[in-house]
Amino acid sequence: MHDVTETIGARLRRLRTDARLSASEAANRIRMSQTYLCEVERDEHLPGLTMAAELAKLFGVSLDYIAGLTDHENNPYVRKQ
User: Fold this and answer.
1) C-alpha 75: how far from its chain's center?
2) Do the domain assignments include residue 59?
3) 65 vs 6, 24, 33, 44, CA distance in Å?
4) Is residue 56 part of a domain?
5) How far apart are CA 72 and CA 61, in angstroms?
6) Is residue 14 in a domain?
7) Which pLDDT score, from 0 to 100, does residue 68 have?
8) Quick one: which of 12, 40, 64, 78 has the most CB atoms within 10 Å?
């Protein structure tokens, strides 16, 4: 179980590294700039809804999990890309 109080950026960085993806690979998969993804992971920006939804699909988690509203990582309603 992970800390629900972790920042959105920290949570996204952990999900990406747990998936063994580089920032470049993750950014390419969601058609987003690597620079922007890294800025989100450093909490310099909050991801927009479209980006958050693409990341949720990529990692197979819910938007609630991305936002830190739940600590339940597994979501049966989300299909991984």
Assistant:
1) 14
2) yes
3) 11, 22, 22, 19
4) yes
5) 8
6) yes
7) 87
8) 12
Q: Can you give the CATH number for the domain in which 38 is found?
A: 1.10.260.40
27 and 19 Cβ atoms separated by less than 8 Å: no
Owner of token pair 């920042």: 7
Handedness of CA 29, 33, 35, 41 (dihedral sign): negative
* DSSP 8-state symbol, 3: -
The structural domain count of the chain equals 1
- Token duo for residue 18: 């747990």
Encode the chain (81 residues) as per-residue pLDDT tens digits. Answer: 455 578 999 999 999 999 999 999 999 999 999 999 999 999 999 999 999 999 999 999 999 899 988 887 766 565 655
pTM for this entry? 0.83
DSSP state of 15: H
